[in-house]
Amino acid sequence: MIGAIAFYLFATLTIASSIAVIFARNPVHSVLWLILAFFNAAGLMLLVGAEFIAMLLVIVYVGAVAVLFLFVVMMLDIDFASLRSGFTRNLPFGIIVALVLLAEMIVAVFAHRAGPMLAGSEIPAARVPNIVGIGQMLYSRYLFAFELAGLILLVAMVGAIVLTHRRRGDTRTPKAWRQLRRHPGTAIDLVRPGTGEGMKL
Amino acid sequence: MTDTFVHWGMQYDWAWFLATIIGILVIALPLMLAVAMIIYAERKIWAAMALRRGPNVVGPWGLLQSFADGLKVFLKETIIPTSANQGLFLIAPVITFTVALIVWAVIPFQPGVVLADVNVGLLYVLAASSLGVYGVIVAGWASNSKYPFFSALRAAAQMVSYEVSIGFVLITVVLYAGTFDLSDIVLAQRGHGLGVVNAYAFNILLFPMWVVFLISSMAETFRTPFDLVEAESELVAGHQTEYSSMSFALFWLGEYANVLLMCALNAILFWGGWLPPFDWAPLYLVPGIIWLFIKMSFFFFVFGWVKATVPRYRYDQLMRLGWKIFLPLSLVFVFLVSGWLMLTRFGGHS
Predict the structure, then answer these.
(1) DSSP 8-state code for residue B282
(2) Cα dihedral sign for B248, B251, B253, B256?
(3) Chain B residues within an 8 Å CB radius of A131
(4) Helices B121-142 and A27-47 sit at what angle, rounded to 10 degrees?
(5) Model pLDDT for residues B252-301, shown as the tens digit of each residue
(6) Which of A25, B57, B87, B185 is the most buried (most CB within 10 A)?
(7) How far apart are CA A31 and CA A66, in angstroms?
(8) Interface touch A75/B153, C-beta < 8 Å
(9) B49 CB contacts (<8 Å, ≥6 apart)?
């Protein structure tokens, strides 16, 4: 009973907050709704017994990706009038994307009934905790794919750094070792100027 | 407890529900009391280090100071700035407070005494602690004021940076314990040091990780050497600048609950949690929760000690420490620990 209540709670909130992501006027509100949607999706994962996936969803998407999203959106100086001015021009493109997504959703929903993959049967309950199961799969059967995914991410990261890194000649970066090496003996000069002479530096 | 209620003739669902609610209250209420007392204790520690008396007026030895402060804050008027985003402004302290409380669900206080004994306990802790930043970011943005906004940006960058190294530190502990379950991590530490000491911290491969974890946990809770989020000389009170009354108090309670949580995690992950310090039978007569409290109190003293003595970092120094020192160091130790375990525990072949 409580499981059913929890499911409908999470499911309703996921859908409602996803809708709110689109309809929120303020982009910061949109991101916050998105975070709520992620969070409730994690709740749904927990209900089907995928606790590892649920935790990853929260750690990676809510804890890291969405923080950066929010960070960027908060700092952008967004002019709402100019955002809306392109509405009619971008409308056909938006409709195409929406139709493609709708088609994919319909296919996804109906294909799982038609397809031979599970044949409508229930997924058998897991014998090992799913963190163990995923670990065994990733490091044995899908080792190559796993390593490849890691490598692709590494390349993407290096690429992003290379693209955005630029050396500017006019800035001075603090050198920690030089700052740490300073001590009062060399950094402070105690002088006692004579009356009426002032400081000579 | 669920079984007892079922035995009394309740339906299983409702028995479970009632037992969970009671469990939450049994953890949350003493936690709030503990927060009130550690605020008092911390003020006494700072006072002692600065050769002052500290709070000594309200109640015997000033013990009721925190409650007096709480009452004062409770009776104050809540002021919401007119240009603030009202809804988010009020939600932000609630987020901080709630997130600080939910993590305690998986903390084991004694053998078997844990609200939710999930097998991904450590990941849950990591997930919930990564949520803590939202309270600060939302508060900073919703206040619509420049100092809180700067504070929010700093908080976001700081939290994300230190979570990376904390993640790797936790991986080393998980590798040693072979589980993500906090209770099992505690049990795995039994007799770890030469068969006598119940702690991971004396392991030469894990000791540096404990130091990294201790420092990172100070950065993660925005404690003093790293309290740039609320650096009063630059940002007034950071994200709390525009807050007053209970909304301010919720930030306050949440922050200290987080500090206590980090103390508990230090104890559980590296110092044997509810196990006594030595694997010697008479020591097991003392209830585990007392050992855990002793360890937490010690770490809390360390936190207060650091706050009283260490000057604040600069922001670039903070980032350098997180990304250029802790991240490579913890990454190297993940390699070392997994290599060592591969050789010793799994005999060099997989």
Answers:
(1) G
(2) negative
(3) 119-120, 123, 180
(4) 160
(5) 888 898 899 999 999 988 888 888 887 777 777 778 888 888 999 999 99
(6) B185
(7) 7
(8) yes
(9) B305, B308, B309
Q: Residue B194's closest CA among B269, B278, B271, B273?
A: B278
Q: Compute the distance between CA of residue B265 and CA of residue B214 in angstroms, rounded to an integer.
A: 10
Extents of the domains making up chain A: 1-77, 128-166
Q: What was the ipTM of the complex prediction?
A: 0.79
Among the partner-chain residues A63, A75, A174, the one whose CB lies closest to the CB of B130 is A63
* DSSP assignment letter at B313: P
Instruction: Give the angle subtended at the CA of A157 by the CAs of A151 and A158, to the nearest 5°.
Output: 90
Domain A1-77 has CATH 3.30.70.20: no
**Beta carbons of B16 and A2 less than 8 Å apart:** yes
Are A76 and A39 in contact, with CB atoms under 8 Å apart? no
DSSP string, A69-85: HHHHHHHS---HHHHHH
Is residue A41 helix, strand or coil? helix
Cα–Cα distance, B1 to B155 (Å, whole number): 40
Tokens of B94: 């609630």
Where do runs of H (alpha helix) occur along B178-244? 182-188, 207-220, 232-235
3-state secondary structure of A194: coil
Q: What is the pLDDT along chain A (201 residues), one digit of tens a residue?
A: 777 888 888 899 999 999 988 888 778 888 889 988 998 998 888 888 788 888 888 888 888 888 888 878 877 766 666 666 667 777 888 899 999 999 988 887 777 666 555 555 566 666 777 788 888 888 888 899 999 999 999 999 999 999 988 877 787 777 888 888 888 888 888 888 888 877 766
Three-class SS of residue B110?
Answer: strand
Q: Tell me which chain A residues have a C-beta less than 8 angstroms from the C-beta of B157.
A: 71
pTM, two decimals, is 0.82
Whether B322 and B219 have beta carbons less than 8 Å apart is answered as yes
